[in-house]
Amino acid sequence: MDELELNPLYEQLIDGLMENHYAVADGFFTPEEVAVLRADILKKYEQDSFKKSAIGHQADEQVVAAIRGDFILWLDETADGAERVFLDKVQDFATYLNRTCYMGIRQQEFHYAVYPEGTFYKRHLDNFHNSNSRKLSFICYLNAEDWKPEYGGELAIYLPQANGSEEEITVFPLQGRVVVFESQLLEHEVKPVKRPRLSITGWLKTAN
C-alpha cells in the first residue's frame, strides 16, 4: 500500500468525530465549488425537479409536513459537472476514513435539499429500524454568503452526556460549511427557516 499523505482538514473532522461524535469544518469545498453547486441546486429547483421529502424507509415512506418540510433531489452517481465534483471529493474523504480509521464505508448517497420559508425538520435520528448501514451523516450548506442567525434554519445536534443529560449544539448553515456526525448516535433537527435554505445532505454507509 502506498504511503498516505495526511490531510489536515480531514484530520480536523476525524478529531471532532473521535472526541465529540460530530465535527464542523469550513473550507472543505472551495468558494468556486460552492458557487457552482449553489447555481446547480437553484437551477434544478426552478425546473421543478425536486419532490416533497418523506419520512420512513422505502415501502414505509410517508410525507408528513408536521415533521419535515423540505424538498429533495437525489444526486446521480453517474452525473458529471457540479454533482461529480461533490461526489468525488466526498469519496476521497471516505477513502481516507477507511484507510486511517477502518470505518468500512462502502457506499454514499446524497441529495440536494431546499427548505422553503417556514419549514423545518423535527428532531430525529438518521437511522431506520430495519437498516443500520448509515455510518456518518454529511451536510454541506449552499446558502448565500450573507446568511444571518435571524434567518433561522440552524442545525441542532443533541449530544448525550455521561450523567444522562444532553447538550444542544447549534450549527448555523453558513455557506460552504460542512457538518459530519454519527448517524446512529446523535439525534438532531433543523429549526424553522425564515428564508429558503439550501444544502446537500447524505450519508456514508457501511454494509447493513
Overall form: globular
From N to C, what is the helix and strand string? HEHEEHEEEEEEEE
* Total DSSP helices: 3
Residue share in helices? 10-25%
Averaging pLDDT over every residue, what do you get?
A: 91
Task: For the largest sheet, list the strands in their spatial order.
Answer: 1-9-6-11-4-3-2
Sheet with most strands: 7 strands, antiparallel
What is the rounded distance between the termini? 27 Å
How many β-strand runs?
Answer: 11
Characterise this structure.
- Helix 2 (31-46) packs across helix 3.
- Strand 7 and strand 8 form a beta hairpin.
- The protein is of the alpha+beta class and 208 residues long.
- The protein has helices spanning 8-20, 31-46, 81-101; strands at residues 22-26, 51-52, 71-74, 107-115, 121-124, 134-141, 155-160, 166-171, 177-182, 187-190, 197-205.
- The mean pLDDT is 91.
Task: Please sum up the structure shown.
This protein is an alpha+beta fold and 208 residues long. It is built from three helices and eleven strands, in the order H-E-H-E-E-H-E-E-E-E-E-E-E-E.
Topology of this structure?
Layout: H1 8-20, E1 22-26, H2 31-46, E2 51-52, E3 71-74, H3 81-101, E4 107-115, E5 121-124, E6 134-141, E7 155-160, E8 166-171, E9 177-182, E10 187-190, E11 197-205
Antiparallel strand pairs: 1-9, 2-3, 3-4, 4-11, 5-10, 6-9, 6-11, 7-8, 7-10
